[in-house]
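Ops channel
N.P.: pipeline sanity check, posting one input/output pair.
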């Protein structure tokens, strides 16, 4: 799907004789959405995994074992590497990432030290990360490849991984200009992060516990 640029979208509206009316309706709709977002912040609690996307509250169903396994195995490696080298902060599953309009809870996120230095006890609303990782499931794939793909890029998330726990593949995207470009898609071999200095692992380490353990040993040596 090819999206029109902001300039093209604005130009299309300005071509309409109803442009002022459309602008007023848009402003009113966004003000109402802002109120719903405030209610969302008020009503959520620690037991909920929910996101606020384009004005709607999205509640997540329980995920399958392969989703949890891939998330946990990657988090273990990434968090250990980041801690050892004091590179920043790694979070997973319920890190509320608040962007201009939407609030997401990516499966794994990494923040460089410049951002992480501002996180204190009680912190619960986070800025755009430097690396975002989404693990696909049937109910979320369209958002992971759609609105989140667009929104992370728009907010300068340097690197984005999409992990398919069924096919056991990792797609790695780098931000080039204003868009993500696919750098690689692997079932085997080594993947090296651009956002996380020195982080390089075998793709299989995200899907195979034995390989993961060997990778963890290598990180800790």
């Amino acid at each position: 799907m090819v999206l029109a640029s902001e300039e093209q979208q604005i130009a299309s509206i300005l071509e309409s004789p109803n442009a002022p009316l459309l602008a007023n309706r848009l402003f009113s709709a966004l003000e109402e959405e802002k109120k719903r977002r405030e209610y969302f912040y008020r009503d959520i609690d620690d037991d909920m995994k929910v996101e606020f996307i384009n004005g709607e509250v999205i509640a997540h169903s329980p995920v399958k074992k392969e989703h949890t396994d891939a998330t946990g195995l990657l988090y273990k490696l990434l968090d250990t590497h980041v801690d050892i080298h004091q590179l920043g902060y790694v979070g997973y599953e319920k890190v509320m990432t608040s962007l201009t309009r939407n609030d997401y809870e990516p499966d794994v996120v990494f923040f460089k030290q410049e951002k992480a230095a501002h996180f204190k006890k009680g912190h619960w609303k986070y800025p755009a990360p430097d690396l975002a990782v989404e693990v696909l499931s049937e109910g979320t794939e369209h958002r992971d490849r759609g609105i989140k793909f667009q929104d992370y890029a728009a907010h300068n998330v340097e690197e984005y991984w999409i992990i398919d726990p069924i096919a056991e593949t990792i797609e790695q995207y780098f931000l080039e200009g204003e868009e993500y470009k696919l750098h690689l898609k692997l079932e085997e071999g080594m993947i090296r992060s651009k956002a996380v200095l020195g982080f390089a692992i075998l793709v299989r380490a995200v899907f195979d516990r034995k390989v993961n353990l060997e990778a963890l040993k290598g990180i800790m040596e």
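N.P.: looks fine end to end. The chain has two domains: 6-59, 65-220.
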